[in-house]
Amino acid sequence: MVCAAIAAVACWWTFTRCTGRTRTAWGLLATTASCWTVGNIWWFYYQLLAPTQPYPSMADVFYLAAVVAAFAGLISLPVAPTRGIERARMIVDGVLAGTLVLFLAANFGIADVFLAAPEEALAALVFVSYPVADIGLVTVVMVLLLRSRGRVSPWLLVLGAAFVSYSVADSAYGLASARGEFQIGTPLDLGWTGGYLLLAVAAVSADSARDQRPAAEVPRGRRAFSAIGDVLIFAIVTVTIVAGDIPGVPTAVNELADGALILLIGVRQVVLAIENHTLRRDLEARVVDRTEALEELAGRNQHILDAVADGLYGVDRDGRLTFANPAASRMLARDHDDLVGRHAHDLFHGRGWDGTPHPWSECPLYAAVVDGVVTRVADDEYIRADGTLFPVEFTASPLGSPHSDVAAVVAFRDVSERREIDRAKDEFLSTVSHELRTPLTSIRGSLGLIAGGAMGDIPSAADRMIQIAMDSSDRLGRLINDILDLERAEAGTLPMQPRPCPVADLLTTSVEQVRGVADSAEVRLVLEPAGGVVLADPDRIVQTLTNVLGNAVKFSPSGSTVTVSAETVGTEVEFRVRDQGRGIPADRLESIFGRFQQVDSTDSREQNGSGLGLAISRGIVESHGGRIWAQSQVGAGSTFCFTLPAASGSTTGEVVIGDVVPGEARQPKVLVCDNDPEVRALLVTQLERRGYDAVTAARGRDVAGLAVTERPDVVVLELEMDGGTGWETVERLKSQSETRHIPVIVMSALTTSRDGQLAARTDGWILKPVDNSAMGEVVGAAIGRHDAQPTVLLVEDDLGLADVLTTTFNRRGVRVVHAATEREAIEATRSLVPDALVLDLYLPDGDGFAVVAHMRQDPALASIPVVVYSAHEVSGAARDRLRLGETVLFTKGRVSLEDLESRVLDLVGVLADSRQKVGECLPG
Ligand code: ADP
After folding, report:
1. CB-based pocket (< 6 A), ligand 1
2. Over the stretch 533-582, which tens digit does the pLDDT of each residue have?
3. CA 108 to chain centroid
4. Is 639 helix (H, G, I), strand (E, B) or coil?
5. Which of 222, 287, 469, 683 holds its CA 20 to 30 A away from the CA of 214?
6. Ligand 1 nearest-atom number relative to CA 603
7. Which residues contact 238 (CB under 8 A, 6 or more apart)?
């Protein structure tokens, strides 16, 4: 009773877990177990409590109901689908199974049960129903197991065992009762209780989902069960035949039954043979199909290999080619047969232009084959059969399969065309930069002159138009600069001169550059104290910082604060610019680093931006090996961060950042010559107090040499030294080319009258004893006369720009000698020692480098300040080739004419005002 109840609970539980047909089946099996439970309660009642037991009783009603539900439940269980001939075999197997059960039952004396049936019809029917139902149940279980050929799950086996156990116990009970031998509490009862418990186990272990798999997925091991099933059936048949005739049944019936059994087995064999035949035919057809599919696949693969434009080849573990596609043969100019079997590296990769061999162990292909790593090479060369080289990029991928004869596959591409395009692009950019920047500089310069009143007063309406034109040309200039910078940043060709730079200097310079804009936008700039040194090109980093800072100011409301800070994090320094502005939506945080990307399309108009700044900044930071990113909360502000590698150690010397030139202006130098050391000491003190730099000579014959090496601005000479050799010294100074231009002041106790001719060749006369103020006046006058009208040699082939520059400098009292070609420039220096040289680099008949090289040869010209003003940026070693005296490099379009003007004036000693010095200065 209890065991049946357990089975009922388990079955109902499984019922709730399942769906579809399985659910129905478990519902019916749960009904079976429930009926058994109620039947057992009744039976218990009759056995122990009721005075008499009627037959048939209420217990029988539930037991028989249980049988009906069990049949329905077992049949409803979904098992593997069967088709065609399989179905025929299953029917034969079912009949065979039923016959066997009957044979066995008969052999165990089930006939006795039938013989002991009561007289009364209903009672007899109920009585006989039990053995019939038991035989039926066992048969159904066997059919069920046979039907699920090869997919028998453990729970299904347990379920079968449950019903077999129950049926055997039930039939045995019937038999014992018929013989009047039944006793409660014998091992026979275990058949029932065991059956109930097995049903409970089957219910809880049933996994409906897993058993719905199609037969194809059934593992091989399970299929063996069907064969074992076959063997079992035959074994039982054999046992039955050996066991002999069924007792109490006529011999004829026995023989008929034996014959029927043999016939059934025969039929089964025929069915089996047909099934095997069908199976073989299916298999053969499948093999044919698969072979065709494989051939088609191989053909398709070959077709793809043939069609790819990239060269493809495979190599074995030794680096020998195992295959090569037609594109590879074509590019290498070798037949397929000439490639296969040969060593790839030795054949077309192992040598440079000059024939020097590269070792195989350093070949990227070696890394793929031996180390098993994917190697990508963007810049390499392969050798054609005729020995010519061509540029390639390739990827070598290891295959990693120990069974294949291909250890790695290489895909390569001839990049000659792309290289050519890159070269053309560079040339185009270079042309654009020159052709656009120079006229734009003239336009901007001319407008500046007009606006500044150089051409007279202008009406106020025109003034406004001129202002618009100036703003627009500034904007156009910025755009050209940005586009050129971006191209080069992306191509990795932006001129960079990394050196150790103190972080604090970079931050201060950048903040100073945007201070003006921030003040007019009423945004407060806060620079947090920062230490550390980074390895970077200061110009580029200041460019990046000013862009990010400029953005922060642009997109911040007035009254808010922009904070700049930097912090060392591990081996990097992280720069941060935080604002309290409008913020950037999360989905735009990455895209704003793309070209022409702006959060709002009105930004370009309202904020005067091009959307290129951050793209350039990213290019700059990444080419320093750093990263740049933005964080933001819309409405609350943004933080832009970037990292740069920290420099180990400290900076060496002073770092020149961008536009700031260190050091004081050079003091004029005076060479004093007198035999008397006291006089020399006195003169040096006087001169130094007046801001001169003094060097001295004790003997007249040393003066000419010192004048060459020290390059003084003026020589002060005692006339009567060494017994009157002063005149000879003057003579010598004036005759040698290196010193001809240096003013000479004579110190003498005599007046000038003695030698009028020579006196005319000197530049001043000081009467001894030397009066301090007279000395200052005369020396000052000598230098002043020399500097009276400073002269600039302007080397510029663009006549428009030359005109604008000439006008600009003339307005400041500076004389301009213009040379439009290299030849003219060199010619001009033969008769002129200018105070400064303003030099364009690209000249119709040569270049500015040649002009500088020529001037270096002449000591009188070798230390003249130079301002290089070119459309092209100068980088690397080229800078050194431009060095004369103080040397400043300006790029047209990047530096305004006003800045150029102020810098040149500063160099020639005019307008020593407080304007910021701009441009990059090379130490002289
Ligand atoms: P530009 O400023 O010249 O438009 P950028 O590349 O420097 O170009 O910036 C791209 C865009 O990113 C800007 O137009 C703006 O929409 C957005 N942006 C950059 N910085 C900020 C910031 N601090 N706050 C809000 N938006 C910003």
Report:
1. 547, 551-552, 555, 579, 581-582, 584, 592, 597-600, 603, 609-615, 638
2. 898 888 889 999 999 999 999 999 999 999 999 998 888 999 999 999 99
3. 81
4. strand
5. 287
6. 14
7. none
